[in-house]
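Before relying on records like the one below, remember that each one covers exactly one chain. Contacts with other chains, cofactors or solvent are not represented anywhere in the record.
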Amino acid sequence: MKILITTFAILFSFLTLNSQSLIGAWEANGDIRGKKVRSVVIFSDNHQVGTFYDAETGAFMGTNGGSWSLEDKTITEVIEFDTENPARVGQTNTFEIDVSDDELKIQGAPLVWKRIDNGTPGELDGAWLISGRKVDGEMRSMDTTRPRKTMKILSGTRFQWIAYNTETKEFMGTGGGTYTTENGKYIENIEFFSRDDSRVGATLEFDYELKNGDWHHSGLSSKGQPIYEVWSKRLP
């Protein structure tokens, strides 16, 4: 199982590709010892996340990601989090890729990835870091340069949040699925949640607004608690 998981982690790492034609989300499906596994990669201009989970139950299996750059067919990634191998955090890896129309794969690997979307139609595509939160009615700013990060990466239809620490290499949690943005409403449909599988299938609705480039996000959390958060676009 470890070998198979490591293989998936490598596959996720290579999928940070051409910032013009490959922004968005991609997926691949396969079997691991009788389980149907879905793998989804979301990547923005400079950051990416890849996750795999049970396609039938939504049980979380693993995630990894970081920043990336592309030269010719060579992907270079600096890993920021990796649930299966935390020792990889901070390491730089390179991979060779092949791309044809809406399919892509790592050279020498059998798995073929299919495009889900190209960064549209949702209004929030990109990588975001939490930069503010309302506590007891008072807005408090948060330092986005610290090692302890909460990041959201969104394509045009997919979202994922990840909490981690690049200094300690600790992973705190993640969740994701599909989303829509319409008439000031941001709606999430949860497909996996690392801390609690029972939340798979839940739908959460929030109010959202873009103010001076920041994403203001308010409503009730998955625990039913009121939240007001501010997210800022992540810089390279």
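Residues 19 and 45 are 5 Å apart (CA to CA).
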